Amino acid sequence: MIVLATGNPDKIAEIAPLLRKAGVEAKPQSDFFTSEVVEDGLSFVENALKKARFASQKTGLPALADDSGIEVEALGGKPGIYSARYAAGENGKTTDKQNLEKLLADLGNRPYTQRRARYSCAVVYVAHAEDPMPLIGYGHWYGEILMERRTGQGIGYDDIMWIPKLVKAVSEIPFDVKNKISHRAQAVQSVLEQLRKGNEL
After folding, report:
1. Distance (Å, whole) CA 116 – CA 195
2. Is the pTM of this model over 0.90?
3. Required cofactors, per record (predicted)?
């Protein structure tokens, strides 16, 4: 049994099936506690590690956490670790719609050659709260930022993240396909492979 160090239902919906398929029993941290750690790290890895250690400390169980976001080349990698609260600055949170609209506004009418972006994710697994050798998995998903929303739906920035290889926005990709190739799926699979190599699965 491990605890998923998130209360985000969208993340749980993506990560839980991957763990289940690997034979790993997992429960979200909301089944155990409601408090949240402050995500004040300077990288996806630091924030994921903080969340994993916090969940493990609170439950006494191994924990797996992720931190992810979108990085736009022309904006120097922004929003990056502030993706979930981009429209509110470094402090506070805001809605997906507000964040998406701010990103479109910041890019303005730049041509597609200047709209390259990637989704990035770091997933961290700790065997216990003070684990000195956490397992870390990384994932990236490359695309371009569209000029406007594609479907009016989707999670986070999915409706403006265009994947050229699939000729679709992320919001148009079926869930079962997305959950095999996304940045989060890549990072989770990397950690699962490390667990297999260590004979922990």
Report:
1. 33
2. yes
3. Mg(2+)
